[in-house]
Please model this.
Amino acid sequence: MIDDILPLLRCPLCGGALSREDCSLVCPQGHCYDVARNGTVHFAPGRRERVYTRAFFEQRALAFASGLYAPVLEAIGRALSRFAPGERPVLVDAGCGEGYYLRGVSPERAMTRVGFDLSKDAIRMAARGGGDATFFVADLARIPLADGCADAVLDVFAPANYREFGRILRPGGVVIKLSPRAGYLRELRQLAGGRVPREMDGERVSRYEDAHMRVICREEIAYTQSVEPETVRALCHGSPLLSAIDADALDVSGVTRLTIEETLCVGTLS
Ligand SMILES: C[S@@+](CC[C@H](N)C(=O)[O-])C[C@H]1O[C@@H](n2cnc3c(N)ncnc32)[C@H](O)[C@@H]1O
Ligand SMILES: [Zn+2]
Model:
């Protein structure tokens, strides 16, 4: 699968083009990256994701499987139709986690789907997920992709590096950034007594977007859905919302509905 996107890839160390040599990708300066048996490549040797664990991504995958985030997926699909309408756009999911959004967005549309994350565990899960997306381990600060190769960069609840996003986007290409608002998982916030990370209120993220992008539109996504107890438990461990507290100590037995409030922001960098 990595061979399909070889022309888009660049060495993260020197920016050189990469070519295939047996089970490796090599640049003209001799920097070498092994292609794993699952088709993924580790482009960030020596860098490790320290916050998010394999258990986090497994729980997050369970929450996604419940369908709770399907309306978010649809909103991303609409934004892509509107702002990346061309034939077979290149969509890059930055900080893609286990790949739910990249795999699932607009399944009917032909796209070159490329996802990367600093977490090896997340990329291993993403590669197992099927579909035609290509995944690799990489750091946002050194994205191993060519200048101007992407039509859209998707960033869902992940840190952003607008300098790198601007470099890999073609002129007029868009960033589609999803971030939580103050009512996101309101029912769990209440149980947590408001002890949630400050990034989860969305305002800081919006200010940062305004400072770094030309914002074209913001859509507020808001809905409440009935959920099964296992989805609530999955989100206790598979959302950054409760990362600061002992989620096992919360009594979530009364939570039967969950509220999703997110902002979908679209902007350009050129
Ligand atoms: C809250 S998770 C969101 C994952 C995914 N977008 C989703 O919605 O399921 C944040 C992600 O950002 C990734 N991340 C954090 N720092 C990163 C970096 N410097 N480079 C690449 N990915 C990073 C983490 O490994 C994690 O998968
Ligand atoms: Zn190199």
Observations:
- Residues 11, 13-14, 16, 27, 29, 31 surround zinc ion (ligand 2) (CB under 6 Å).
- The first strand starts at residue 19 and ends at 21.
- The chain has one domain: 2-268.
- The domain at 2-268 is CATH 3.40.50.150 (Rossmann fold).
